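Example 3.2
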Amino acid sequence: MLQKIRDGASGPLAYIVVAVIAVVFGVWGIGSYFTPSSDPVVASADGTNITHSQLRQAVNQRYQRLRQMMGNHFDSSMFPRDKVRQNVLDNMIDQAVMVHYAKAKGYRVTDANLLAEIRSNPQFQENGKFSAQRYKALLSQAGVPPGQYEARLRQGMMGDQVRQIVAASAFAAPPEVDVAYRRVNEQRKVQVLTVDSSAYSDQVTVDDKAIQSYYDKHPKQFMRPPRVKLAYVSLDADKLSPPKPDQATLKQLYQAHKNEFGTPAKRSADEIRIPIGKDDAKARQTVQAVIAAAKKGQSLKQIAAATDGAQFQQIDAQTKSALPDPVGAALFGLKQGALSGPVRGDQAWYVLRATSITPAKTPDFNNPTVQARLKAMATRKARAKAFRKKSDTLDDLAYQAPNGLKTISDKLGLTIQHTGWITRHNGGSGLGQYAAVRKAAFSDAVLKDHLNSKVIDLGQQRHVVLRVADHQGAQRKPLAEVRDKIRQRLVAQESQQRAEKAAQQAMAQARQGKPLAQIAKDTQGAKLTQPGFVGRHDNTLDPSVLSAAFDIPFDNKSGSAQYRVVSTDSGQAALVAVLASRVESSGSKQGGGSQRKQIAQQQSGYNASLEYSALDHYLRKRADVEIHKSAMN
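Structure, written as tokens:
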């Protein structure tokens, strides 16, 4: 059935696997393929069983995606496994319910549709074409059998069919589009009176009693996270000192890498290229005619000019590796001035005449530059060999002596070193800068069981083994350490409150008819700005100010200014005044024709998502769902 997907697979076993998948798809359906009886069922939805192994695999894949998205910032403690498991299970149940509904309504995914979907996935392609080898390799890396992947993909595609039908039936009514259009294109004329809180900070005094009170009431704000100091040994290839290489070793390297020390041989030539196209016989006849004319003394350039379809070019001092394989092999087999026979390439025939030969030049073994490079090369090889040997020993010792670093230190001659304090998310600039180190340091084996870590590969041929030398749990920082920080915070809070009070008083005066310009002059720390008409996506105003400008109810008919006080992102208080409102249009008969179409499409998409969510909720509510929590752990 899906044999085409496995193009490139060979042998009887491959056909057996495909045949089994075909039987499973065709006779037993998706559920029976990956629901072995020995695998406990954690949930069932409208007759479809979800097994423990399926749930575990889906949860693991969710964590893999989170790690890929967050990189070194991923912290499993941010995603409790119980909550992730429940979320994943809910999604699997929703999908099973939707697939059951789709089947009942007659939706189907043909084998051809499934095959096309797989082949069109860029992840399974190489050079723009589907690769069966890559397909199998990626699934193998993910631990997902192809048949299981195909079954899940079929389920997803069936759900997508329902989504597409819902989307096709959704539409946006003209009044909806009008409202959305006006909202998108509305502009409001605003004035902003900003009261700078820092203008009041000199008037604020904070005593020790207030600081103590704040410290006592907000203990969580001053918690120091759990931290550790580490002892570790580091095996670093760059710090190994292998013995100096002897002459025999250098000569052996010289012979093996001789071509790297000099300049390679180069050839220049005249070349005629004759594309093969659809008629290889005709191209072959043309090649023979070219060779015959060249043997009579005509230059290849002249022959190309007189020969239909022939292309002439000069090859200027190229190495063999820089040329297509058949061309390079033929050219480097010619003497100067000699003419080649017909040379067959992938898409063309070639005729070559060697015009210049530059032999390879290799400096003598005793050349100082060669000697320096040989010694550096030998040292790198010896150092890498010594590092591999010591790394193997380090692996063994880390396993054999997990309760301390002294054995490792003594046998490998490595100094036991120490770090400063390291937290889960901050390790400074030393060893703690590596996420792998912090992860190992706070693992249960190292932190709770007091064992050495496994060997940690830091890259660039550096391996470490560590253990916890000191540990402090989460604890509140002493008051003396945070006193100044609390004082600054209390001053900022009181200053902000005074600025907001001043802004509220300014709003009351504005509502009584006093001009904002005069209010700004009379208010401490106040400044008036008049941006004029602004749109919803204006990037010159503070986000809080812009949001308030469009949240304030405003009626052009009354013509009365409307006001609101907000706190800005920079900690200032702002009085926002809305003076007028208008809707900008493109000037077309209905105003913004193309934009209206875009808005209508967006609104239709939004309505479709609402309808699909409503259908999903309805189906889930009436579905026959059973969850066996005892089987989930």
